Amino acid sequence: MKEIYEFLKKCETYYIATVEGDQPRVRPFGTVDVFEGKLYIQTGKVKNVSKQMMINPKIEICAFYEGKWIRIEAKAIEDDRIEAKKHMLDAYPSLQAMYKADDGNTQVFYLKDATATISSFTEEPKVHKF
Prior knowledge:
By secondary structure, the protein is α+β, with helices and mostly antiparallel strands.
């Protein structure tokens, strides 16, 4: 999982896909954190992406960096604990102007049953399950 975390951090922006009804939705994200041995992402409960993940937790993440790309299939599981939210916000001080761990809007999800594949045109794909 460390390699996945570091890849996403280097990318700075990755793209997360959710489903709304029968329509895929993709948007840029930038938060990634490791807390208690799990990979986390963050959003706000008021956003459509939050509502979509609560209805259908199956997501995919895609990012590209220096000739390699990553695809992650996972279930996004909400962790409503203040400690998890605080850990994420501590990792991203710039978000603290918009989010607080106890604001009722900040939401963090950890990735469960994840399969991450790092690929390129010049190397065999690396597959990680976590």
